[in-house]
Structure prediction request, 417 residues.
Amino acid sequence: MTRCAGLRAGLIALAVLASLPGAAQGGRPPYRSSGLCDGLPRLDLRTPAGLCVGLAADGFTFPRGLLPLDDGSLLVVDMGGWNEGKGSVWRLTRGAGRYAKRKILDRLDRAHGIARGPDGKIYIGAIGRVLRFSLADPSASAEDVIGGRSGLPALPSSGRHPLVNFVFDREGNLFVAVGSASDNCELDNGGPPDARQPCAETDGENPRGVIRKYDMRWPDGRVTGWRNYARGLRNAIALAVHPSSGLLMEGENSRDFIHRRIPAMTNDEESPHDELNLIEEGAHYGWPYCYDDGVASPEFPAADCAPYRKPFALLPAHAAPLGMTWYSGERYAALRGSLILAYHGYRRHGHRIVAFPTDARGLPAAAPIDVVAGWERTKTRPLGAPVDIKAGKDGRLYFTEDRNGTVLVLGTDAARR
Prediction:
């Protein structure tokens, strides 16, 4: 695939060595700041000339989804860790310095995704369900759209990838990622699958590793039907729809532990690659049978990879893209039109935010540039793990970073004061 081959050298060159993860101690802020960035504490992270990173808020347990509102406030989903029922939604309002925090909804089960629907309500993805509420009265207005008490089947919630992320298309329909239960279709005891049989997890009656499309009726926001839109996607947690062309792009978190199945491979630091996939209805993207540009998985050595859709581009191994957005604002001229990804991974190639220059349809057309880097752990700086990234009405990019419980802002040096 020519696009994939042309981008690969630039993508893989983004490797940055990382130390073992650490955590802030004694309740102190995890970052050291020096000066101001758009009026916020300025953090010691690398950005392109003229840009900086400001600390909007900290003290969260596990911040994931993020939604800037038109009034300048931010909604943040705090997953609360991996224990059940600890998730919450917070509203952040800019004050004289950092943002003030107010909890508006709680007792959610490992909540992750957030978006504003065509009806103006706030939609949240939690384990097994998608719910929505009105900002005027979040608790009293909360209701299930998928799963829960909606009358529709719950989303799968077992295994390795139960978190729920989603995105609305331009017609107001809902695309929901349903992650795989396994790493690569292994058995419950960790053994390899039967190479002679299809993987029931992705090709059975109720498949995992898919993107579902829920057709929505407006203005009441009711689901009129749903189907499995695309298959063979191990963990499609990063999703974005281009605002003009309507393209649906997915950032794939590819498999782990491939070296355990390939005796000659001592580790999996460089393989398999994570992926950028252009999602089309009815396509199968190869998991768990194939990886990279059509390489048969060791569990399925005789797999014919030709029928499966190849990645639009390969990303560095274990970069773990969790957040993705097209930037159409005016604030950062060099980033306008770019597809921006948050690499959450704590291994060699993760912990950074990158921007892909794109063509007129929004497809990546060149190797990415670093937007935020330098998140390696040092004596004065923690290891970072960005999650969601969204642009506000003011043109600023806001992002959550769950390893240190923070919400950060990409600012401009010109605004320092």
Remarks:
- The two ends are 49 Å apart (CA to CA).
